[in-house]
Design brief:
single chain, alpha/beta, 9-stranded mixed sheet, two-stranded antiparallel ribbon, 57% helix
Length: 700
């Protein structure tokens, strides 16, 4: 059993058992105060935790004991509350068995490749279910009621008289200026990603030019934001006489008419927006503050409409709230309200959600024309671009009835339903038929009449969609576990042993030939010297004053990249020759499928080893040169500092000082030797040893 057990799990077991704290204390032979302190702590000693749980004498207590007594060797133990903890444990058991089998005398090296591939697949699928982060993205046509539905489903509501309304701006469409993301955080808050100033200037130009010429313009939501930020709104003026109609005064149009100069008006509008003061990126509120939802609602609206003086034009509004503010879920959820669809559905923001394997995409449509053109178009896009979202059931349809639409629908006999649920059933059948007519597979369908139907039911349905995505991964884990059992119990080692023996001997000889690296071709310092000559002198000077540690000119990093460049030059021909050796073996044994696959895997592995080698030597170079530059190159930095400001030729002179330092300084030369020794060690470890070990074969 683990040394420490979370007391939250213990308290959960006691609460479920109905045993009072005082009664349990008596069973354990301790005082109630002692038990109270134990439960108030973060963790409990394993022995005490086991006594505590055994005293409860419940199946849940026994389950907790059994869970924490498991020994995890290959995977991190998940939380007890993790929804797929049993599947992860089965994977851990399979990995342990594979490891034991691999280490056993019965294991034939010929099985290395299938075993390693199986292990990789297990680890990949476990990594997916181990993380509980998921997203639910709502997509729909403008004005369909998507945002209102999202708010009720997630329970993000504020009081509005006797009713409740969305925390987000809602209306008949074109209300939200950008995508809104809801994320879990320690406190309530709003984070805003804003447009760049150049982009805002272009929007203002489109707005003013369009208004001046009568051609073009902006979508109403962006039009509204810019007008509010610049205080050039359209204002409705009430009629003064009984027969007079209300009028609208457009202050921006008046400004254009008075000026007559479009460019001047554009400059005036941008100036009025006061972009230099609109630099805030977030506002935070304590989660214990009263009326926090009302605070969110007001500030989201002000930011969305361009009325908050601290924020510029938003391109993404992220709403932060504590977990308890959302409806209950076992997952770490983000909820995305995408910008309403108008016209094309081929948008990057939409495809980003659809392609994400951890996201459930909710296609919202009106009830009357469900499934609707937008969902059908998105589904076609998803299928034709090979996202796999429809096939994996990551896409679902949510039809949004209004008023008594569900009661006005008729079935094939012309009969009307007696209840909304009957109307939903009729429409679902028609939706499925429409999918078939369009040549599309059916997707999960649900209905939600805001204010009438249960928002909790729809929420649970969506959480179930996430559960289905995860279940497919759990099924894959189960298949991998079964495959591991088959590999261990039914391993077929009757392979072409002559081929494998020949491969092993050939690669061993190749490793012997290539074990010694060619000498240094381009010293790392040459990289630094060359960069000094081509870098702006202010960056060089800034780096000099910081002993090389300057983001714009990091000397130790440049040296590390110099090591990488040199090693790449020195090993390029070797890797070509290794590849030629493997290709020759493919030519000889390609008719043997299992051997050909082994050689293909070996070729891919060599490429991966090469990438790792270059990455590691660069890091080693940087890590070894950094202390030299910081602590033992004082004379170099003093000379470079003295040279600055003494006339032209600064960079050339500094480069010469660098060259002289690395050519003659004893510590610099010693560091270069350390770097080379590390390069040779990494070459032997990552390339030579790996080449021999991966191709090794024993006929015993």
């Amino acid at each position: 059993m683990d040394d420490q057990i979370p007391t939250t799990v213990m308290r959960m077991a006691r609460d479920a058992s109905g045993v009072r704290q005082a009664d349990l204390a008596a069973k354990l032979g301790v005082s109630a105060s002692v038990l109270s302190r134990l439960e108030a702590s973060e963790n409990a000693d394993a022995k005490m935790a086991k006594r505590y749980l055994q005293s409860l004498a419940t199946p849940l207590g026994d389950e907790i004991i059994e869970f924490f007594e498991r020994r995890w060797r290959h995977l991190d133990r998940p939380d007890f509350a993790h929804p797929e903890k049993e599947a992860i444990w089965r994977a851990e058991e399979a990995l342990q068995k594979l490891h034991t089998f691999e280490e056993s005398r019965d294991f034939d090296p010929i099985l290395h490749n299938p075993l390693n591939n199986l292990r990789k697949r297990l680890l990949s699928d476990v990594d997916f279910v181990r993380h509980t982060e998921h997203s639910i993205a709502f997509i729909g046509e403008i004005g369909v009621g998507k945002t209102t539905a999202l708010s009720f489903v997630t329970n993000l509501l504020v009081p509005d008289g006797e009713k409740k309304t969305s925390v987000f701006p809602t209306g008949s469409g074109r209300m939200t200026v950008c995508e809104v993301a809801i994320k879990i955080a320690p406190a309530y808050g709003i984070a805003v990603d804003s447009m760049k100033e150049d982009e805002i200037r272009m929007l203002v130009s489109d707005l003013v030019t369009g208004l001046a010429t009568g051609k073009g313009g902006l979508p109403s939501e962006l039009d509204r934001v810019i007008r509010n930020m610049a205080d050039v709104r359209r204002v409705a003026v009430r009629s003064r006489t009984p027969g007079e109609k209300p009028k609208t005064v457009d202050h921006l149009k008046e400004l254009i008419d008075r000026s007559g100069d479009v460019d001047a008006v554009i400059a005036e509008v941008v100036a009025r927006m006061k972009l230099e003061t609109r630099t805030s990126t977030q506002i935070i509120l304590s989660k214990d503050t009263e009326d926090s939802m009302d605070w969110l609602s007001k500030n989201i609206s002000r930011i969305n409409y361009g009325q908050h003086p601290d924020f510029s034009v938003p391109v993404l509004i992220t709403v932060l709230l504590p977990l308890e503010a959302l409806r209950e879920t076992p997952y770490a959820l983000s909820v995305i309200d995408t910008k309403g669809v108008e016209g094309t559905t081929k948008r990057q923001d939409l495809m980003k959600r659809i392609e994400d394997e951890r996201t459930v995409t909710v296609l919202c449509c009106s009830f009357s024309d469900a499934p609707g053109n937008v969902p059908l178009s998105i589904m076609r896009d998803a299928i034709e671009t090979g996202t796999g979202a429809v096939e994996a059931e990551r896409i679902c349809l949510l039809a949004l009835p209004r008023n008594d639409e569900a009661l006005k629908i008729v079935d094939d006999m012309g009969n009307r339903p007696g209840t909304p649920d009957e109307g939903y059933a009729i429409r679902e059948g028609q939706i499925d038929q429409q999918f078939a007519t369009e040549g599309l597979p059916a997707v999960p369908v649900n209905f939600f009449h805001v204010g009438e139907d249960s928002a909790q039911d729809v929420w649970e349905w969506l959480i179930g969609r996430i559960g289905s995505i995860r279940a497919s991964k759990v099924d894959r884990i189960s298949r991998h576990v079964e495959a591991a059992e088959n590999l261990i119990l039914n391993a077929d080692v009757a392979k072409t042993r002559v081929a494998r023996a020949t491969i092993a001997e050939t690669m061993r000889k190749a490793a012997d030939r290539f074990s010694e690296l060619p000498p240094v071709m381009r010293p790392a310092a040459m990289n630094l010297v060359a960069e000094v000559k081509s870098t702006h002198q202010s960056s060089v000077a800034a780096s000099v004053t910081r002993r090389g540690e300057w983001d714009q000119f990091n000397a130790s990093y440049i040296l590390g990249q110099g090591v990488r460049r040199d090693v790449n030059l020195r090993t390029k021909d070797i890797f070509v020759r290794i590849d030629e050796t493997i290709q020759g073996l493919k030519d000889n044994f390609g008719h043997l499928a299992d051997v050909a696959q082994f050689l293909e895997n070996l070729s891919e592995d060599v490429d991966d080893w090469r990438k790792e080698l270059l990455s590691r030597v660069a890091l080693s170079g940087r890590m070894l040169y950094s202390p030299h530059l910081l602590n033992r190159a004082g004379d170099l930095w003093k000379a470079c500092l003295k040279r600055y400001g003494e006339g032209s030729g600064y960079r050339v002179d500094v480069s010469q000082q660098f060259q002289a330092h690395f050519d003659a300084n004893e510590d610099a030369l010693a560091t270069a030797v350390k770097v080379e020794n590390q390069v040779k060690a990494l070459w032997a470890q990552l390339i030579i040893d790996a080449l021999v070990e991966s191709s090794a074969f024993s006929d015993e």
